[in-house]
Amino acid sequence: MHHIYTTAQNVQIHIKPGKKSEYDFIVQYRELGKRLRTPQHIHFIIDLYMKKVGNKALTLALVDHIIEQIIVAVQPATIHPPRLQLFTSDQIVQFQNLDNYGEYSIEFLLVVIELIMIQEKTNYPTGTMNLHLFQRFRREDSIFSVVQAATFRGR
To answer: Does residue 58 sit in helix, strand or coil?
Structure first.
């Protein structure tokens, strides 16, 4: 397991080798006093819905940022462990008010979502599952269709 980042709230973000490709990895995190966890898409979507109730316009701006500045921009990993490619602490400031809503901090979301997008591009260079998931949330598709996309376990 490789330590990648620690948030201001002392959440440690790690990766471990995966099995899907040469540079595949699995993202995991540990909050203080808790066990190691592997985040899933549904966790982010639920958190975004909670943030959206608190501040719809800012949450939709965050999702735009995720789509345009992370999903579209990241490149596949060519080393192990991978490195963050795009995240800077300056990105937190514009969305920081969303820390008042939901479970996850903006810092945590931006780092972990970037790593998951790198992982997707590494294993599925032409894959669009995550892009479509966030686009559905952005379009305000029904909660059913967004949750269904977040929990999809097929090919």
So the answer is: helix
pTM above 0.85, yes or no: yes
Residue 24 forms part of a structural domain: no
Give the separation between CA 36 and CA 16, rounded to whole angstroms.
Answer: 12
| Per-residue tokens: 76 | 């596949």
Domain housing 52 = 40-150
> What is the rounded CA–CA span in Å between residue 129 and residue 142?
17
Query: Could you tell me if residue 83 is inside a domain?
Result: yes
- Contact indicator for 17, 80 with CB cutoff of 8 Å: yes
153 pLDDT tier (thresholds 50, 70, 90)? low
- Picking from 123, 120, 19, 139, the residue whose alpha carbon sits closest to that of residue 73 is 120
